[in-house]
Amino acid sequence: MKKILHNSFIFSLLIIFCFIFLNYLGALQVPKNIFFKSTSVVQKTIYIFSLEISDFFRFFSSINNIKKENANLKQQNTKLLGEIVKFNETEQENEFFRQQMGLEISGAEQLILADIIGQDSSNLGRYFLINKGIKHGVVKKSVVITSGNILVGQVSEADDYFSKVQLITDTNCRVSARIQESGVVGLIIGNYESNLIFDLLPREQEIALEQTVVTSGISGLFPSGLFIGKIQKVISSDVGILQKAEVIPLVDFSKLQKVFIIKK
Amino acid sequence: MKVILTVLFFLLAVILQTTSVSFLAIFGVIPNLVLIMVLVMVLLKGFDKSWKYIILIGFLLDLFSGLPFGLISLGLVSSSYLIDSLNRNVFSAVKFWIMSGLVALGILVYNLFLIGSARFFNLDLFLNLRYLIIEIIYDLLFAFIFFYVAKKIFHKK
């Protein structure tokens, strides 16, 4: 026994397994909270500072495209303004019909604003650490979005003051989704690459590029109608009854600073 | 005093790894500077003298990771113990090409360990060779820098 304990490798494994056991029992909750609370200010400052430096270099590397992008955005803006007017009218009509039919008007969901203070250190997982936890109303499986109702991910672990968010780009993330224009339903799967995989699409359905993908709400985990991305490539083969598509997310996860958690 | 400074240094390294390093991504791959630091430390100081720090670093990285708690610590300890054993039993001196080979092996073992052990938790982590090769090359660049800086600090010939 003494010999085993003198072997630093076995001894270190024993310590780690003790930690795993303590974590399983929930005994590490207090030290975790103390650590995150005492380092969160430093983490947030470094994260924002890094984001700004990264933006600064990106600005210089993309200076040639800015003029072109600006013209495109102006054109897109005009188009969107027209669509907003149309949507407002539809919303008013909807409200009117709801009142006529005696249906309840759906209220706005309660959102919790959180700062991103850290990311997963490995290339294998795609997780964010946010500075809101159980004490602020965050629970496991809460849905995380960003401005514009764009889906970011789901809370995978909630501590008292901090939570881990599994991004939709994580390989273990599955989101039931549909194409907004055609209503075709499939499954969004995270990918190591920057694009998402839209799987389980019926082969007889025609999938067009640039179509918008939103959450379908079928699984009950994610509310319906949250934006995910746009179809960039259709991958179909002659064999099989299903086809796949590549979806480019609407949000650039590397630029995110703040997110909203939908309160359950 | 030296121990406190070393602990604070590693704490800062972990915080930097989880906040700033993701912005150094190339082709979507981020360098694992903390892993490199651990592997270089093991090559220069040996596993017996550095295991306490490795456990501390692993514990801190586990706090930030979305993987099941403890996997990163186990991955760090296993990969560093393996390269230390090879270094002590197979090679006589830490030379440039030996260091490169051992660090590359350490990164490979660490990633394979995480992918393999994640299966026990029904997690779908799969081996992406392109990513792994980019990560090894990218990490090696940092390993060379760390290795020479550490050698200067420890005055090791």
Task: Describe the 3D structure.
The complex is a heterodimer of chains A (264) and B (157). Chain A has helices spanning 2-6, 8-25, 29-61, 63-101; strands spanning 111-119, 127-130, 143-146, 150-158, 163-167, 174-179, 185-189, 196-202, 212-215, 227-235, 242-249, 258-262. With 264 residues, chain A is α+β, with helices and mostly antiparallel strands. In chain A, the strands form two sheets. Chain A has a six-stranded antiparallel β-barrel with strand order 1-2-5-4-3-12. The longest helix of chain A has 39 residues, at 63-101. Chain A is globular and about 75 Å long. Chain B has 157 residues and is mostly helical. Chain B is built from six helices and no strands. Chain B has helices spanning 2-19, 33-45, 47-64, 71-89, 96-118, 129-154. Chain B starts with a helix and ends with a helix. The interface between A and B is large, with 49 and 49 residues.
Brief account:
The complex is a heterodimer of chains A (264) and B (157). Chain A is an alpha+beta fold and 264 residues long.
Layout of strands and helices, then pairs:
The complex is a heterodimer of chains A (264) and B (157).
Chain A lengths: L1 H5 L1 H18 L3 H33 L1 H39 L9 E9 L7 E4 L12 E4 L3 E9 L4 E5 L6 E6 L5 E5 L6 E7 L9 E4 L11 E9 L6 E8 L8 E5 L2
Antiparallel strand pairs in A: 1-2, 1-12, 2-5, 3-4, 3-12, 4-5, 6-7, 6-9, 7-8, 8-11, 9-10, 10-11
Chain B lengths: L1 H18 L13 H13 L1 H18 L6 H19 L6 H23 L10 H26 L3
Helix pairs in contact in B: 1-3, 2-3, 2-4, 2-5, 2-6, 3-4, 4-5, 5-6
